[in-house]
Amino acid sequence: MSELVDFAPRRSEPLFGRLAIIGIGLIGSSIALAAKELNLAAHVVLADREPAVRARARELGLGHAIAETATEAARGADHVILCVPVGACGAVAAEIAGSLKPGAILSDVGSVKSAVVEAVLPHLPDGVHFVPAHPVAGTENSGPDAGFPSLFLNRWCILTPPDGADETAVARTRQLWEGMAAIVEIMTPQHHDLVLGITSHLPHLIAYTIVGTAEDLAAVTQSEVIKFSAGGFRDFTRIAASDPTMWRDVFLHNKEAVLEMLGRFSEDLSLLTRAIRYGDGETLHRHFTRTRAIRRGIVALGQEKPETEKLRKP
Ligand code: NAP
């Protein structure tokens, strides 16, 4: 048992009979650990296309069973969660469509929502409810060993149900995430993509860029980049170690929102560049004062705390 049960009570009756998790990476394995520990489903079954990952998942005791294929895992499931990169959601939905039972809920965890909705909806069989989700929680690690059950504790999970979505299906998906101690918010896929464009996607792009720039400089100052990285570089660029496939898909599938945010960011950067060039200390000071207040507001909201500090009792 992890410390999670101190904060999210274990259910006496499971919420779902069979929960299928497709993709055993950081997010899939974390859901499996939390769902089994908190009795959110009577039977948690996982699937992964890679035999070595399935073998590792068995060794780790993830869920109650590991299926050989996504189709086998999804068959008869009450709730199916696609935990694969955004760009793979459509193909996996098409693959499992024939095995989804009427009344089942299909969900995902993709970091982009409009593109996933567009890719999945055409494959949705009649009588199956699609409730897309995005847990705003993660680390820079990936694979079946990366998961831990308290990953979603006190983190947002955004649901983006399509217009006219079945209310019971949405409520049960909400219960699943709240059962893992996440805080659920509902919004449209388009709004989600805009908000996450600035709060998550752009910061990742900047971190990836800066690490690349430093690497280019490394020919001259290789040892200094490592030696002095505690001066901001190390913390700021932690996210540049995130999974390349996942992030390639995020940028390819949230293109418009990211380009919009990148445009605004470039304009703001030009203003600061100009202030530095012309020695305009007043502009710099005004900007840094404003951003310090914004940053402190984020910390006060509790979305930026070490794992041990963010734990809350129910
Ligand atoms: P991960 O640890 O890299 O795992 C990705 C999983 O997807 C692996 O099981 C992988 O299978 C599978 N996969 C990759 N390409 C596939 C394909 N073409 N067809 C079928 N399966 C495929 O990634 P993750 O961090 O769990 O991310 C999974 C999803 O969660 C992504 O949509 C991501 O946007 C979203 N998400 C991530 C975070 C985060 O911080 N990491 C946070 C919130 C949401 P193999 O084992 O065969 O490679």
Descriptors:
single chain; 314 residues; alpha/beta; Rossmann fold; 6-phosphogluconate dehydrogenase C-terminal fold; 2 domains; 6-stranded parallel beta sheet; 3-stranded mixed beta sheet; 9 strands; globular; disordered C terminus; binds NADP nicotinamide-adenine-dinucleotide phosphate
SS element count, helices? 12
- CATH class label of the largest domain: Alpha Beta
CATH architecture of the largest domain: 3-Layer(aba) Sandwich
- What assembly state would you assign to the polypeptide chains in this entry? single chain
Q: Tell how many strands the DSSP assignment holds.
A: 9
Order of helices and strands: EHEHEHEHEHEEEHEHHHHHH
Helical fraction: 40-55%
CATH superfamily of the largest domain: NAD(P)-binding Rossmann-like Domain
Q: What is the radius of gyration computed over CA atoms, rounded to a whole number of angstroms?
A: 21 Å
Description:
With 314 residues, this protein is α/β, with parallel strands linked by helices. It has helices spanning 26-37, 51-60, 70-74, 89-96, 114-120, 167-179, 189-227, 233-236, 244-253, 255-277, 281-300, 307-310; strands spanning 16-22, 41-47, 65-67, 79-82, 105-108, 129-130, 133-135, 156-159, 183-186. The protein has two domains: 3-188, NAD(P)-binding Rossmann-like Domain (Rossmann fold); 192-309, 6-phosphogluconate dehydrogenase C-terminal like domain (6-phosphogluconate dehydrogenase C-terminal fold). The chain has a six-stranded parallel sheet with strand order 3-2-1-4-5-6, with helices on both faces. The radius of gyration is 21 Å and the shape is globular. It starts with 15 loop residues before the first strand and ends with a helix. The model is unreliable at 306-314 (pLDDT under 50). The structure holds NADP nicotinamide-adenine-dinucleotide phosphate. NADP nicotinamide-adenine-dinucleotide phosphate binds at residues 23-28, 48-50, 53, 83-86, 88, 92, 109-111, 134-135, 138, 142-143, 146, 243, 245-246.
